[in-house]
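Anyone else keep sequences and structure tokens together like this?

Example one:
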Amino acid sequence: MKGLAAFLAVVVLLAGCGGPAAAPSSSPAASVSTSSQETPPSDPLPRMVMVDGVLYQDTGRESPLTGRCGTMDGEITSAVEPGQQPSQDGQSNFGAGYGYQRTGDGVVELSLDGKWILFREAAPETVVYNGESLPAEGLSPETLDWLCWYNLLPREEQLALSYIPGDLLSQLDLPKEDAPATQDAQP
């Protein structure tokens, strides 16, 4: 009896995990092309704004800051086409009428659809991690976005994180786990 109950339980679990079978789609939008003649789409420009002569790009992250003053530092007043790069102060490539606040070195936050979205300087020369200035060269755009978000966190939340992007980790002067500890010899 226990064997039959176990067998039925396995059948029920397998049936539940399988879900409805996906029928092949006949729509052209859902078909996958294997033609080698198609060219991959070029990367579109990210959402960008120009503030005080500096170009900032969207990090895709919402700001961790909570308490805000109600005064905007400025507003995006004009826009270029989405595939273009803004070239004038107060201009974006995704629309106008958005308020912004400066929140740190190389960071502005835009109020978009009721959320504060982080925008970081598009081509910084240096970045800050744990109060240490590091060259931005060699860091991926994702790491630059992560640093923008990280640097706005309260210190307690920074210390609670257990993740550091690999390309940033390689720039930090940290002792290696397998390296022997050295002590200064005292005579």
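And example two:
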Amino acid sequence: GPPADADRIGTLGRFMRKTSLDELPQLWNVFRGDMSIVGPRPERPHFVEQFEGAVPSYADRHRVPVGLTGWAAVHGLRGDTSIADRALYDNFYIENWSIWLDIKIIVRTVGSVLKGTGG
């Protein structure tokens, strides 16, 4: 019946979120060139406008393409976390970019995904 289906979908959804499998469709955006593998995580347009007005350095994070994972994300700044902190970490990444920093972020992301702690 419906309750079992709802529980199964809820369990599947929680598993996909915990393991970051829900992020896989964004790989298509990387292949299309709309996103990078590493960069500031995207926000919904509605929130971008709101955050740009409230957080002084927020707009600066748009100097580079958005990414599947980023410096803020590997430091636990995902979802319901401080927008000012995310902007700070995103701007640090942009200002200190190197191939080695990208590799470090990718390795940390893979480790988090394999542990089931996000990425």
